[in-house]
Amino acid sequence: MALAAGCLSAVPAQAAQAPQQVPPQAVAQAHTVTYDQYAVKVDGKPLYLWGAELHYFRLPSPDAWRDVLQKVKAAGFNSVSLYFDWGYHSTSAGSYDFKGIRNVDRLLDEAERAGLYVIARPGPYINAEVSGGGFPAWHKTHAGVNRTSEEAYLKDAREWMSRINPISAGDGHPLTIGGTTYAKGLGVHADSQVRVYLGGACTWFTATARVDDEVGDGGSVSFRAVADGRILFTSPVLYGSDGSTPVDVDVTGARWLDLTVDGGGDVSADHADWADARLTCAGGTS
What residue spans define the domains of the chain? Predict the structure, then answer.
C-alpha cells in the first residue's frame, strides 16, 4: 500500500541534520523516466526491459501472485506487464472494486517485493483475449463508439482512468476508516516500520489507528509507537471488523519516533493506517 500524501513521513537517518520544524521529506526517492530511440532511461541510465506478463484477473488468488512474480524474476526478467481489466473492476456504472482478488495495490506491492519494474497497461481497451476487450458490460448500453474520440465514449473511459491511474502510479487509495476518508496520514502494509526524525523539537503525536476499509473485515495488525526506544503506545491485535483506536502520546524531547505495524497473520489484507497523523512541534502542528 502506498504512502498517502500527507504531513507525516519518514526521513532516513543519514539525512537528518537538525531538528525539523517542517514536515520531514519522504523516504521514497523520486526517479526520472525518459526514453530515446535506443532505450528507456531511469535517472538518465539506459534500462533494457525484459518483461513477462501476468493476468491477475485469471489468477484470483492474491497469495499466489507473489509466487508467480518471484518465478518471473528468477527466470531472468526484470519487469512484468500488467493489464488492468476495466470490466473486472466495474460491474455497474460508477461502481469500482479494488478489494480482495481485485486488490491492485497488493499486486503492485508484490511486484516491487519481487524486484520487478511494472509496465502498467490500463486500457481502457486491453484485448488480452478477454470478453469485450475489457470493456464492462454496462458500458455497452451507453452511447458513443468505442475507441474513438467521441465524447460519450470518452466520458466513461476517463472515469475508469481516473480510478486506475492513481493506483498504478503508486498513489494508492485515500486512507479510509469506518467510511471516513482522511487526506493526511500514513498507510502501510504490515510488517512495517517508519522512522521519523524529531530532533527534540516536538511534544505530541496523535493519530487514528485501524485496518483500512479497503480490505473489508480482513486484516489483523497491531500498532506500536516508540520514542528513542521507549514504548509510548501499543495496541491489541486489531481486525478489519474492529473500530478505530486513538493514538495520543507525549514525545517531548525525543529525537526519533518509530511507528511500527506488525501483522497478525492475515498477510493478504494487512493494510494499516495511521490516519490523520499529526506532530505538534516548535512552530506549530504538522
Answer: 31-168, 175-285
Instruction: Please tell me the pTM assigned to this model.
Output: 0.57
Characterize the bridge pairing of strands 202-211 and 245-250.
antiparallel
Choice among 38-52, 72-86, 202-216, 253-267 with the minimum mean pLDDT: 253-267
CA distance 20 to 7: 12
The residue among 248 and 217 whose pLDDT is bigger is 248
Cα–Cα distance for residue pair 108/117, rounded to 1 Å = 9
Other Cβ atoms closer than 10 A to 8: 24
48-91 pLDDT, tens digit each: 999 999 999 999 999 999 999 999 999 999 999 999 999 999 99
Return the pLDDT at 8: 39
Residue labelled with grid coordinates 478477454: 130
Superfamily per CATH, domain 175-285: NPCBM/NEW2 domain (2.60.120.1060)
In whole angstroms, what is the distance from residue 21 CA to residue 72 CA?
Answer: 45
Cα end-to-end span (Å), the chain: 23
118 SS3 class: strand
DSSP 18: S
d(CA 269, CA 106): 8
Place of cell 492475515: 266
Mean pLDDT of all residues belonging to the chain: 83
| Residue 104 and residue 78 in contact, taking contact as beta carbons nearer than 8 Å | no
Residues with Cβ < 8 Å from 209, sequence gap 6 or more?
A: 223, 235, 238, 244, 245, 246, 247, 272, 273, 274, 275
CATH number attached to the domain at 31-168: 3.20.20.80
